[in-house]
Amino acid sequence: MKTSPADLRFILQSEQFTTVIISFLLVYLSHFSAFGQFESIKITPQKTYGPYENTRSFFSHQKHYIPGEPLNQTVKTIYIAINIWQKDDGTGNFTESDELHEHLLELTERLNMHFRSTPPPSHPVKGIDYLRDSHIRFELKDVGFYQNTDLYEVGCFDGNRLNEAVFAISPEKRKFLNIHFTPGNCRGASGYANYPSSGSSGADSFVVSFVKHDRDDLESVQWWALMLHVAHELGHNLELRHPYNSEYCQTSHPDFLFDLFGFEKQEWCHNPRPGCEICYHDGSWGCDLKDPETTCTNNIMGGNRAAGNITPLQMGRMNRAIANKSVRKYAWGFSLVPYEVSFDQTWDTDIKFYQDIIIKTGYTLHLTGTIEMVPEASLIVESGARLIVDGGRITNALYSETHWKGVVQEPAIKKGFLFWRKDVPEGEMIITNNGKVENYFR
Questions:
Q1: Are 344 and 388 in contact (CB under 8 A)?
Q2: Contact call for residues 115 and 310 (beta carbons, < 8 A)
Q3: Neighbour count for residue 250 (Cβ, 10 Å)
Q4: Fewest CB within 10 angstroms: 26, 240, 387, 415, which?
Q5: Chain centroid to CA 375: how far?
Q6: Rounded CA separation 154/141 (Å)
Q7: Dihedrals phi, psi of 39, to nearest 5 degrees
Q8: Measured between alpha carbons, how far is 101 from 98 in angstroms, rounded to an integer?
Q9: How far is the C-alpha of 165 from the C-alpha of 414, rounded, in Å?
Q10: How far, CA to CA in Å, does 7 sit from each of 3, 19, 21?
């Protein structure tokens, strides 16, 4: 039978209509699946962390906190206090004066210069893009003078004694990272500091610097060298180690610094220490970076007079400490860029956030750990998303002077059009097993 042009047009139009109907049905089914899944979400959602086997390995990896990464979009300021230790009669160290305060403020600003605009590495590793801004700053909140002959010349590992003596007199200074200037000694070292704690969020940090000045001429003090020393010790508070004797020296270690030591054993490395796959760098105050017979670098933890560079992974490790170690209690800041939960996740770690958290539509955040939020931050549960606080806790940051902004549950909405229109429920929050959401603006 011969087909007329009119019949052909009808057939083609019918096929096109059928194709359109099938396409709409596929879209509808896909749309229904996307929002229908909310009704069948299990209490323990799927864990998907790419190469990281669980949330702990994800949130503990230093590279996720490199400036510019989603967990580190903001500059954070650490509050510090400087304590000058003197004899009972007030002698033997710096004496209080406006000039001294000006020098200590200048020392703090020089610290910030190093952490804000770190110099390039003296020995760059090929393939590494080095950064300038660590996203870490320091603010000098207090300078105190303490007379105690018994504590005047402390030795190694007395930082906690000095801290407690200060807190007994000035309890508000527990909110700050305390730096102590004493004339003591520690096996030839110029000072020492403690590493942050992962098990106790309230543990106190300290720096002990063995410096005294009992003369009136403050201009004779080597302030630049003192700043480098304090920067080095603060690096320990932020979980950095010495590249000349104590950094991780196996390339398989998750905290190995590829951007400092390289990706494989160095050409000059002939006798690495037992258990090491690379050789440590030379380290001494007078080490000459230009001498081909030495291996020292200008890294901030290198212990030499040219110290200053901070590698991207070191930046990441320090900012990680400010998120999930005890030193976080001294740090403050807020980013307008939120952290997005865009797949089902279970968080069983303790962490401090300096930005909003948004749970995206269709996904669940299952919390069994603790989240500390800075005052400016909120946790937003989008329409069709779910927050389960399962024995976990969301609270304000330790030493915060005000509450955080709380959980925002977005209202129900309608998506789609015509008979493909779908109701999306409001953001849902479930609190179970003695979970807590506390200390927020109501």
A1: no
A2: yes
A3: 12
A4: 26
A5: 17
A6: 24
A7: -75, -20
A8: 5
A9: 61
A10: 6, 18, 21
DSSP string, 74-100: S-EEEEEEEEEEE-TTS-SS----HHH
CA 252 to mean position of chain CA atoms: 22
Q: Which of 177, 210, 181, 182 is nearest to 194 (CA)?
A: 177
pTM assigned to the model: 0.87
Asked if the model's pLDDT at residue 242 lies above 60, the reply is yes
In 158-279, the DSSP E strands lie at 177-182, 191-193, 206-210
Residue labelled with tokens 């953001």: 427
Residue 420: predicted pLDDT: 74
Q: d(Cα 87, Cα 327) in Å, to the nearest integer?
A: 30
What region does 176 belong to: left with phi over 0, alpha with psi -120 to 50, or beta? beta
Q: Give the pLDDT of residue 38.
A: 33
Q: What is the rounded CA–CA span in Å between residue 180 and residue 145? A: 10
Between 34-48, 110-124, 409-423, the lowest mean confidence (pLDDT) is in 34-48
Q: Is 167 exposed, middle or buried (0-12, 13-18, 19+ CB in 10 A)?
A: middle
Contact 60, 320 (CB under 8 A): yes
Quick check: 429 pLDDT over 90?
A: yes
Q: Residue type for 360, please?
A: K
Distance CA 317, CA 247 (A): 12
